[in-house]
User: Fold these one by one.
Assistant:
Number 1:
Amino acid sequence: MRTLPRRSWMWALLLAAALPTGTARADEGDDDEDEKGLKTSLSGFLSSDIRYSIPKLNPFWCRSGWYCHGNKSVGDIKNGFSRNENIARMRFSVRSGDYKGVAEVDFVWTGFSRGFADLANLAERETVDPFRLEAHALYFDVSDFITKGLDVRIGKQIVTWGKADMFNPTSNLNPLDLEDTLLFGDRVSNNMIRLDYNFLKDWLVSLIWVPIFKPNQLPASAVLAVKGVDRIPLADAALRRRLHVEREGGELLAGPTRVTEAIPELPETRIENSQVGFKLGGKAAKMDFSLSYYYGRSGIPQPYVERTFNVPGFIDAKTSLMYPRMHVLGFDWAGQIPMGKVGGGNRGIGFWLELAVIFPQKVQMPIFQNDMPIIGSGEYDYDGDGVSGGTPPTIVPSRPFAKWVLGLDYTFNKYVFMNVQWVHGFPDEFGAGDWLHRGYVPTRGYVDLDTNNDGVDDLDGVLIGCGVLSGVGDGRLCAKEYLRPRLGDYLVAGVDLKFMSEKFLLRLFFILDVTGVTIEEFVQDPGQGDPTVGRRRRNYKHAFTGDGFGMIIFPQLTYSPGGGVELSAGGLFALGKPHTKFGDPSTGGTVVFAKGKFNF
Amino acid sequence: MRAAFFFFTACLILVPTSAQADPKGDVVMRRYDRKTNAFKDITLRWNLTVKHPGRKASLVKFKVVTRPQGQRLIQMQYPGDIKGMHILVQSADEMYIYLPAFRKVRRIAGHVRNQGFQGSGFTYDDMAIGKWAPYYDSTILREDGKHWWLDSRAKAGKTPPYPHVQMSIRKDIDLVHEIQYLDRHGKKYKSQLFLDYRCRGDNTHCNPTRIQMIEHTRGNLVSEMNLRGGILYDKGYDDDIFTVRYLHKSAD
C-alpha cells in the first residue's frame, strides 16, 4: 500500500483548491468564443465499491480441506470483504490555443485500516483510514509543433494501441494495471514523449520514447503464484521432471520447498533500457490498418536465478525475477463485413484483427544450492553427469511467437449487442509454445509412484525408487505433470441486454479457456511385471472435461437513472481446477460486488 | 400474343421508373439540400430529452460542428457517464467514436448506426445524414400553399439508412418541416418534426431550434432536441478537425 508523503498531500490540496475555478467555465464545455484564451474543463467521478471475495465458491476445487495438490492450504485464501473503496477521480484540462495540459488523478480511500504495531498507530490517519493517489495522466501537448500536423505530448500518459477489445497484444508501451480484476485491460500511466505526425489526411505516424520501464501492476492474489514451486516454466522437460522428483525427495529429507523471496529486479535506469515504439496507422478502402513496432521489455517477470538454502524445517527458495527484452511487430485491421441492406443502410458486422509477433530475449535460470541433502552446495548439476553446472535451464526460449485477437461484434436490435473474440495468448503468457509450435509449461507437477494406474504405488518410494538418494532423481519414471501450452486460446464473449430505454444494462461476459490440459506420466507396459518398464504417455483433456475446464463468468446489472449516476451489482465467478488458468487460486477466485458511481 | 406480353412487361418496368423521374421532386430536394447546408461550418449545442410516460425525463447535452460536405463532429457534454465521448462523422458510412473510459477511437460499424442514441429515437445514422438528394429519387406527392410533400426512395445502387421516406418541405424557406420514415410495407414507424426555425441575419440559412422524433412503434414516444444558446456560423473549421487525429487530440 502506498502512502502519501506530506508534501504530495499539500500538492493535492492545492490542485483540489484550484479545480473549482475551472468548473464554472467548463460546465457547458462551450468554449468556441474563447479560441485564443484559456479554456478549462473538469470531469471525473466519485465511486464507492464494495466486494466480497468467496474464492472457495468453485465446485472444481477439492472438498477435502486441501487443494488437490501442492502445499497450499485452503486456509491461505479466506472469504471476506476484499474491497471497500471510495475513489474521487478528477480530470482537469486546460487549453490555450495549440497548448493543452491534462491532469487526471484518482484519490483512493482503501477502506481497510492497516495492521497496528502499537497504540500510537491509532493516532495516524494514514493507518486508520489509508489512502493513496493514482495519476492516470499528467501531461501537456503541443499541436502543430514546428510544422503543421506534428503534435508532441510530454509527460505521464497512457498510449493504447490495437483494435481489439481489452486484449491488445500490440500495446506494450504502458504496463497493465491488473490490480482490479474487474477493470481488466486497464493500464498504468508512464512518462513518455510522443510525437504524432499527420502526413496524409487519414494517415498518422507515431514515435514514442519511454525513458523508464515500469512493470505490470499485479493483483494482491498474485503472491499466491510463487507458492507453486512445481510451476517453474523450464523449457527442458527432462530437467523439469527431475526437479519435481528431487523436490519431493528433498521434502522427506529436509522439509518442503518454500519460496520466501521472489524479487522482481527492474532494469537499470539507463538509456539502453528505455523503450521505443513506432506506429503507422491509417485508412484505406473504408477499413483501418496499422503497423507497429515496439522495443522494450515484457511486463511479465520471469525467474532468472534461483538460490536454495537448507534451513531448519524447510528448503528456502529465493528467486530473482527479471523482465526480458522483446521486439514486437504489430499489425491490426478493423472494418465491417457487409451484410447487405437490412432495413436500409449497410448493417455490416464489425470485425477486427490484431496480431503481434514477439521476438523475446532468451532467459536462463541458473540454480545455486546451499547445504542441500545429498547434493551439498554449489551450482545444480543440470545434465546429471555428477559434475555441478552445465548449461542452465531455459525459462523463455528465444524463438519468436505470435499472439493475436480476432473479434466480431453485432447489434441485433436495440436491446441486444454481442461481442465475440478469439484470444490467442493471454496477457500474462509469454514465450513460444502453442498449437503451431509445441512448447509447454507445467501447471502441476509431482511424484506419482503408481505406474499402472491401479491406485496402488508400484515404485519403491521417492528416495529409492525414484533415485533421489543417488543424487539424480528419475523424472522420466516418477514425475507426473499437468501441462499446457505457453500460449493458450480463449473464447471471450459478451452480451449486452439493454431495456427500459437503456436505463438498465445486463451484461453477461465470459472467458472460456479452450486450451485444455495435457497430463503426462510414466505408464507401465501392459503385461509387464516390472513397474519401471514402460513409456511416458500424454493424455489430452479438452476444455469440456473436468480436468481441462476453466472459465470466468462475469454477469453485471447496471441501472443508470440519469444525470451520470450508475448503480451496479454483479459477480466474477472463476471456475476450474487449481491447475487451470482460472481455477488457479492466484487469480483471486470468485468475487461479488456492488458499486455506485456518479460521473460528472 | 408475344408482342402483347412484351408490351405489358415493358409497362411494368418503365412505368415506375418514369414515375420516379420527377424532375420537380428532385429539384425541390436539391434546393432543400442546398439551403440546409448554406454555411461554411455551423456549431450548434443541443439538449436532448426523452420523456417516458410516468418517468423522469432523461437529458443529454451535446455540441455539433457540421460542414456542408457532410462532416460532423459531435461532442457529448452531459451526463457525466458520456461526457467526453466524441463522435466523428466523415461521411454517411464512415463514423468513429472516442470512448474516454477506454482512451480509444473505434470505428462505428454499420450494425450500430441504426440504434437509438441514449435511449432516444435519434440514431447515429440520423447524425450522419447531411444531404438527401444524392441518395434519393423524389417525387411530389402533393402540395399546398405552404408545403411540398415529397415521396423519396433510395436510388438504385445507394444504401442510405432509410430506404423510403416522405417529407414536407416548407415553401417559404425551402427547408424541411416533417420527415416520415416508412418501413418496407410503407407503414410509418417514426416521424421527425423540425420546428421554430431561426434564420441568420442575412437570411441565407435557417436552422430549427426544436426537433422532435416521434417513435410510433414505441407508443409515440417523443425525443426532443432543443437548441441551447446561439448558432455559430463560419468559425473557419477546416478538414483537420474532421480527422481521427483530431478526435484523439481534442478528446484525449
Number 2:
Amino acid sequence: MGKYIVKRVLSMIPLLFVVSVIVFMFIHLIPGDPARQIAGVDATIGEIDNIRRQLGLDRPLVEQYVTWITGIFHGDFGISYSNNMTVAELLIPRFPITIYLTICSITWSALIGIAIGVIASINRGKTLDLVGMVIAIAGISLPNFWLGLQLMQIFAVDLRLLPTGGVNTWQGYILPSVSMGAGIMAILARVTRSSMIENLNKDYIRTARAKGLPEPRVIMRHAFKNSAIDIITVTALQIGALIAGSVVVESVFSIPGMGRLLVDSIGFRDYEVVQALILFFSVEYMVINLLADVLYGIINPRVRYE
Amino acid sequence: MANISKNVSRRGFVAAAGATVAGLGLAGCAGNSDSTTDTTTGSADSTELITTDKDGFVVRAEQTDGKAPANECIIALEGAIQDTNPMTCSDGNSVNVMYYIYDTLVCWDSNFELQPAAADSWEISEDACTYTFHIRDGITFEDGTPFDAACVVTNYQAAIDPANNWRRRRMFIRTLDDDTEEVRVDNVYAVDEMTVAFHLVKPYSPFMNSVSQFSIVNPTVVVQGNNYDYSKGSAGSGPYRLVEYAQGDHTSLELREGYWGEEPAIEKITFREVPEAGSRIAMLQTGEATVVYPTPSDQVETIRSAGDINMCSTPSNIMRYVTLNNDVEALSDVRVRQAMNYAIDKDAYIRVMFSGAATEATSVLPTIVPGYAKQEPYKFDLEKAKSLMEEAGYADGFDINLIGDNSTQETKGMTFVMQQLAQININVNVQPNEPATNAEITAEPEDTTTVQMWYVNWSQSDADGFLRSLLYSTSLPPIGYNTAFWKNADFDEQVDAGNAAATVDEQNEHYAEAQSIAWEACPWLFLASDNYLYSYKSYLSDVKMIPNGIDVMHSTLNV
C-alpha cells in the first residue's frame, strides 16, 4: 500500500506538468491584454510596452513559462496585476474558506445522501423510497443559486436565524454549505440506492440471509460495503464539481473564496493568479482521487494494489 | 463601471474585473455592466415602472423609528474595491473609499458643483494659466505632518515621476498620440507656506476637475513611491482612517482623531463586496447592510414591503450609446446615421432596460454634466427613418456587426437595438464578447479595426471628458475611444476653444456649439442616461450621491 501511494504521488508530477503547460497556454493565448488593463484608457503605446516589459510579457512564451515554473520551485507564484499583491498574499486568506466550505458541503451531503439511498433501497417501491427519490430529484433539479437565495430569504430575512452572507462566524457556513451540497446529496442518494438494489439482488446476499444473519448486518456489512466503491467514486468526482459550484455560491453569499477570485482574475487576465488557482484545483482533484483509490483498497481487499 | 477623472478613466478596466459597478464617479469608463452573477435583474414586462417623487425617492420608508445596531454604516457594493492607493486607483468603488480617507483641494457636491475642501479659496489668473489655491490652516496628517503648500508640491512631484508609473500622472501630462505626450502643467510651486500654485502651459478649463481628483497623501509617505503599502496604513488627512482592507470581502474605516473639519457623526464605515443583487437586498432587510448600491430595479416591491427602507433614483453621469464607424460605407452617410436614430424607440429602451429609471439622451452629455446643452431629440419616427434610408439609397438596408459586453444586461440592450433597426431593414449581427476581449478589439487602430458598431457606456464628470475622449478627431483608438472614427474640424475647434476659455460661460458656449455639431452628425445612436438607484435603512438620516460615490459624511445613524 505504501509503495502504491508513493507511486501515485510520483505519477502526479508529470500530470501537473501537463496541467501547468495547458493552463499557461490557455490564459496567454485567449484575447485580452493585461498590460492594457493595467495602463488604462489613454495610455500611450510606449506606456503599455513599458508595463509589458516590466511584467516580462514581451518575452517569448517559452521563456515566460520557464520563469514562472522556476519561481514556483522557489515558492514564488508571482503577483496579481490587478492590485500588486503577491499571489500567495491573495490566496492564503481564501484558501481555508474554500476548503472549509467544501468539507462542510461534502460531509453533510454524503451522510444524508447515503442514508437516503440506503433507506430507499431497502424500502424499494414503498412510500419511503418515493419520498427519498423526490428529495433526490429536487436536489438535482434546483439550481444552487436559486436554492441559496430561497434559503437566505427564509433563514436570514424572515426568521433572522442566520447571516445573509460572509463567513465571519461559523453560522455563515451553514446556508452556503446547504446550497452547495444539495445536488451532491441528491446524486449520492440515487447512486447509493441503485447500487444497493443491485447488490441486494445478488446471490451472496441470498446466502447471507439463508444462513440466518440478522437483516441489519446483511445490509450494512454485506450489501453496503460492496456498494461503497461506487459511492466513493461518485463522491470523489462530485468534490471536483463542488469547485464549479463554489463560484456561484460564493457570489450569492458574498464569500471571499477561491472560486470568485478565479472568475474575477480571468476577467482581468490576471495571468499568474489564474495559473496558481488552476494548479491548486488540479492538485486538489488529484489528491482526492488518490484518497478515493486508497479507500477502495481498505474497503475491498480484492482491489488492493501492488 | 468605473469612474474617475478623465485622466484615470478605466473603461474596460473595471468591466474586465468581473463584477462592475455602475459608474458613480468622475472617470470615464465604458463597458460597465451588471455582474455576471446577477440573477435577479428583471424585465420591464414583469416589474412595475420606477417613478420618483420630487426629492428623488422611489420608496419612502413608513417606519422611521428603527434603531441601528451600532454606530456603523455598512455600504454593500456590487463590485470590488480593487486598490487602496489614491495615486493609482481607478475603479469607482476605490475612489469612493478614498473620498473618506484623503482630502483634495476642492471637491464636488451632489449638484455637481465645486466646493472648497482642503483649499478654502482659489483664484484663476486672467490668462487662465495659473491656478492658485489657499490651503486651510491646521490640517494635519495622522503623524502630525502638516498639510501645506510644500506637501502639495511633493505630491505633484511623486505623481508625475515616471518611475512610479501612477495613473494620476495623466492629470498633469496628456497623451497626444501613440508615443508623444504633452505637459499640461509645467510648474507647481509654493507661493507661501499655505498657498500653492499650478501653472499650465496653456489654458485648460477642465483643470479643476483634475484637481478635484487629486488626493493629497502624507508627504512622508508619498516619497516612498511604490514601497509603501496603502492597504495596511492610513496616509490621509480626511476624517476616516483605513483600519482593514480584506481584498474581495470588506474594507473598514473608522473616525480618526485630529480631523480639521466638522467631525462626522458615524463612527465606522464598512464597505462590503456583495456581487449578487438579491443578496444585497436581503442584507438591507436584515440590517446587515445600511446602504446598498446599486439597487436592482426589480426590487421595488420587496423594498416597499420591508417598510423601513428608502430607495432613491437620481440622474447619473452615465451615457449609453452605440458608436457608428464612419469608415463603414453605409454608415458614412449622415442620412443613414440619422435614420438609425429615428428608428430607435427610446421610451421603450428605457422601459425594457431600466424599468423607466433613465432619461432619454438629449445630447452627447448626460444632463447633469456641467456644460450640457439640450438638443432636439430624434423622436421615434419610422416613416422618417425609412424615407431617409431610401434617400440614401439603402431602402433595402444592409448587414452590420454590433459588439458589446456579454453580460445579461448588455446583451439585452444589443438585442433591443437589433430589433429596432430591423424595422428599417438593417440586419444587425449581435456579437457579445467578454469585456477584456472587447477592450482589445476596440483598441485596434483605424486601419485595422473590425469595430462597426459598439454598444457601450461612458461616465465622466466634465464635458471635456466626453467630447474630447469620445469624439475628438485625434482620440482614435488605441489612445481614445472615438470608435465612430468621426472627424469634424468644426467640432474639434469648438472643443479646443472651450478648453482655452477663460470663463465658464464662454467655455459652455463653445461646448454647446460642439454638442450641436455632434448631435446633427449622429456619430452615435443616442440612447439614454440611466439613473443611480440606491437604497438605505430609514435609521440612517440620508445619503448623498456625489461624483466620488456614496456620501454619508454628513449623515447620522439613529443608534
